[in-house]
Amino acid sequence: NLTQKLDKAFKNLKGQGSITEINVASTVKEIRRALIDADVNYKVAKEVTDKIKNEAIGQDVLISVSPGQLLVKITSDELTALMGEKAVPLSTDGSPAIILISGLQGSGKTTFSGKLAQFIKKQGKDVLLTACDIYRPAAIDQLKVLGEQVGVDVYAEPENKNALEIANNALDYAKKNGKKVVIVDTAGRLAVDEQMMNEIEGLKKGLNPTETLFVVDSMTGQDAVNTAKTFNERLDFDGVVLTKLDGDTRGGAALSIRTVVDKPIKFISYGEKMDALDVFHPDRMSQRILGMGDVISLVERAQQTFDEDEAKRINKKIRKNQFSFDDFLSQLQQIKKMGNIKDLIGMLPGAGKLMKDIDIDDDAFKPIEAIILSMTKDERENPEIINGSRRRRIANGSGTSIQDVNKLLKQFNDMRKLMKTMNKFSGSRRGLPNMN
Ligand code: GDP
Ligand code: MG
Asked: What region holds the SRP54-type proteins GTP-binding domain (predicted)?
């Protein structure tokens, strides 16, 4: 799956202190492939990744995260920005407000109309649903059933074959009955065709709706983008509704549609239940597209809590092979500041998954800290001077055993050796000794 692919892609970047042109190139290529797999349009995927590449190069990597993890975060921020950064609310101002629903047959218009009616009703506004699918009698019944479910009136004229007339009559009805919002559900076809386009265009011109929404099935991938483009050229709609996000689809269509038609996505619909509707949030969708929400929140937390100057200072010492127990202690304390250690480890791709079930709690670092704190300044800087009698003293002082002290010293030594070979800290938790 995508996460595994990205995991693999980011492996190239582990063990690097900052993002360079060489190590980023292959990763960016993998991200591009991953985006395309998530149904993002090829051109869009290329634009995004080119931009990410330029932004990423030269960025210093905080010691707490690996360059790969940082790149995921950069990618996610970029996708969020491309999808508009913030949620764009639906306007329901008007007397009454008119919301015109457009889209192909089967895209989920009628289902969405019911959901939207409930959504607006919950905001305390009186809503009227209007059945303007004049071709299928069953469509009227379907809307009536949904209206009943959500407790909203449905206006319909089964004999009338003029959609605009029905809609106008519905408006009169709404005004007389104190309805504040009128949702107009319309007919669709299986593919874009002239008659449907003329009809929906006529409805838009005739009704002058507060908002025209375009409903699209997110599972239709590349077609979704083309349909959106065609509808937008004719209707100049105000917002997009992505449906059927309850399936396997990663939502790449959201990114493609947004970049191709430059209209905000306003809602996502993810099931047949009437409350399976959410306002569209670009940041959440970007995490869904990347499939690495855990990594992203890890990086965010790291960015919030890690002292960047301290990280740089330690990085420098590592490069000079001067990493000391004091530096190690400082890192432990930073990691602890980030919160629950078990959570953090669970968030790490790869190793994190393996270690998730190992019993490690927030107290796991306590004996390590105690041992280091029992060392003298000199000992922390030059662990090689810690002989047998010093070990005994440290064990006594820290309330641990000589075996614990020996173990930590050995692990610390191994870690330093590893650093020496790489001469760059991996940034992953690889170097951390544990007390198990
Ligand atoms: P319309 O032709 O555009 O009005 O589409 P409908 O609202 O009738 O929906 C077509 C089919 O898709 C129906 O079987 C719906 O139950 C189903 N459907 C609509 N929205 C969703 C959704 O968000 N998730 C899933 N899984 N099915 C949906
Ligand atoms: Mg319908």
From this structure: 264-277
